Amino acid sequence: MKILSYKFLSACVALLSLAPVSAGAQLKINFSGDSQLRKLQMAEMAVTNLYVDSVDEEKLVEDAIVGMLSKLDPHSSYSTAKETKALNESLQGSFDGIGVQFNMVEDTLLIIQPVLKGPSEKVGIMAGDRIVTVNDTAIAGVKMSKEEIMKRLRGKKGTTVRLGILRRGVDGLLTFDVMRDKIPVTTVDAVYMIRPKVGYIRIGNFGATTYQEFMDGVARLKEQGMKDLILDLQENGGGYLQAAVDIANEFLHKNDLIVYTEGRTVERREYRAHGNGKLLNGKVMVLVNEFSASAAEIVTGAIQDQDRGQVVGRRSFGKGLVQRPIEFRDGSMIRLTIAHYYTPSGRCIQKPYKKGDKKGYEMELDDRYKHGELYSADSIHFSDSLKYYTLRRHRAVYGGGGIMPDFFVPLDTTRYTKLHRQLAAKSIIVNANLRYIDVNRKALQAEYKQFDKFNNSYEIPQSVIDGIIEEGKKQKVEAKDDEELKHTIAALKVQLKALVARDLWDMSQYFQIMNETNDIVMKAVELIK
Questions:
Q1: What digits encode the pLDDT tens for the residues 46-103?
Q2: Using CA atoms, how far apart are residues 451 and 445, in angstroms rounded to an integer?
């Protein structure tokens, strides 16, 4: 009889003998002949060895694991080796590659920016270059997928890839041999002084390098005279718990509780501030919306419950489940929920869910939209059983899932019209921007050597706007009336200016422009002043 596959056996054992986070709790395992583990083993062996048709044993095992996890909470999950690698790269702070930001324009890879001091910049590759061959294989004009191109460009650190490049104003094909290296993945999107004495930092997610990136940003802002801080966690989906704890520590006094975790087999574990933070003084505003989750909610809940700052925006997502990774030899992984997160006041961050009903869980944000919660604070009602109090000023805050802000900012449904959303969905806006920056990059760099001059005086040419509207008409995307067209053009001017700034400088400059039309950011600016 065929031996049971390694992954299936190790999955069963790992799920049953997983060492808890806290050393105090112990799991009791029953290995008797009638145990459920044995039942599971026999079922897999029977199907593999006796079923009428041949079966893919690896897929059978993976489906069994996925099936088990699907009956649990929405965040316990299984990922293949490929999926696990991609997930880890986004959190661990680096990956092996050539070091370029790029986009696809008409089946051609256009370099937006080479990574500063990265392998491509070192050999002379420039923004605006087009990569047309990789190791003498054409990748331009051949309908190659973005994933396939990425596969060809990436590789182990120290290996070399030959790139064939077309450069505007230079005849013929340029050839560069690029030695792949570790490429940093940044998680802090923007750092700048949004107003005199008021700094702004936006964190995209919490990874291995987030804390150091954050502290580098704080140091730069303090050099520029920062006294107060706006911490933007909008759309931040979370990440590493320790990164969130380290950042919250910078705001809180010694022994202040940041967060605690507790589960059925995991004893309560507390994370407290050390009192050595660099942001113990000054006003703090934390920005969240319905897409802020997990680690972002830990930081927000700690600052709110300890009365260290105020929260502005809309109720956060409500992801308060702690996952523990269980890795398999082939690189695949289970992320199993073992505990809940709780804010210092005792609120459980996790919103309600029904086991096995992942679709209903995913539709919860749509329910908020339909019930009017995103538009009006008056539509949000909490029972007294969900009432908690902050630890210093004893202000009422509420549990029941997510972090409810101190200052509610409704969703502005008029900001982006249907026409604007359709133009964006068809990539008409981004393609127009890429074509414009490709042709005008050198002229713009010569005229706007400093961002301040660009921010104060630059306007996107009307011809670019007209081209977007015309291209929309060709693809049967048109405004329903003059009012919609007017609103769309106004939003396009701001967005395109921000995109040009991003391509000439970086994401900080992009957000510096876009934030002036962001209602949540502007409310925080108003309050902090």
A1: 888 888 998 888 888 888 899 999 999 999 999 988 888 877 766 666 678 898 888 8
A2: 10
Dihedral over Cα of 489, 491, 492, 496: its sign: positive
CA–CA separation, 231 and 300 (whole Å): 9
Superfamily of domain 94-184, CATH level 4 = PDZ domain (2.30.42.10)
Q: Which are the catalytic amino acids? A: 294, 305, 319
Query: How many CA atoms within 13 Å lie on the side-chain side of 298?
Result: 30
Q: Of 365, 338, 357, 352, which is closest to residue 237 (Cα–Cα)?
A: 365
- Of the candidate CATH numbers 3.30.70.260, 3.40.1000.10, 3.90.226.10, 3.40.50.970, the domain formed by 188-322+335-411 belongs to 3.90.226.10
Residue ranges covered by each domain of the chain: 6-70, 94-184, 188-322+335-411, 418-527
- Candidates 166, 239, 243; CA nearest to 212 is 243
- 96: enclosing H helix or E strand: strand 94-97
CA distance 360 to 278: 42
Residue 9, amino acid: L
pTM of the model: 0.84
Instruction: With CA atoms as reference, report the closest residue to 423 among 366, 488, 341, 493.
Output: 488
- pLDDT single digits (tens) 431-487: 899 899 989 999 999 999 999 999 999 999 999 999 999 999 999 999 999 999 999
Helix 482-504, helix 507-514: angle, nearest 10: 150
User: How far is Cα 233 from Cα 296, in angstroms, rounded to an integer?
Assistant: 6
Residues contacting residue 375 through CB under 8 Å, at least 6 positions apart: 410, 411, 413
